[in-house]
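Handout, page 2. Input:
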Amino acid sequence: MLWSSVVDILRGSLFALAHWCGGSFGAAILLASAAMRVALIPITFSATRRRLIQETKLRTLAPQIDALKKRHAEKPGDLALAMQKFNADNGISLIDRGSMLSGLASFPPGAALYAAVRAAASRAGGFLWIADLAKPDRLLATGAAALAGAIAWASAAHGDSKSTSQLLPVLMTATISLLVLWHLSAGVALYSVSNTIVGAVERAIAQRTIRSSNT
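Output:
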């Protein structure tokens, strides 16, 4: 099958990259994951930028949204209609078709590399303090989850606008990451760390372009 052939090619490329990295398969995973994520930025960047613009708009409009919720607190149907009109008047789209398309386009290459990392982990050896990249590493899983949560918290708002109400989705991000990585191989956790870091850099660049366009 085409999919298995692609995964096999990527797996072989990981071992070749590991040889170039002095035999370190862990370093190869980090580099390959980062390279793949960077290569996808032309597909994902515009969606990231649109998402940031909408997040900023929603924060600005939050008082008006809260007022609508209070006004129609006892009439869910009226609230739904009012929110629909409010979103249309303010250019807020709950479904971003561009984001959906970019997600669909970027999923196959990312999934193929993920599958290659999982398939190759059994022959990967160790990395840093990790004795076996094929087995879960609790410390790495915890660190990767903490990194995901920290970046989610840093991205949630700006300056004084951070509040405890934003803590729940951050905790969910960290908890889900921990639960998933706790049972997966350390090689996959390294893949997650690399993707998280490049994703944070992409978001920071998108925020800078938005600020530049507003000045």
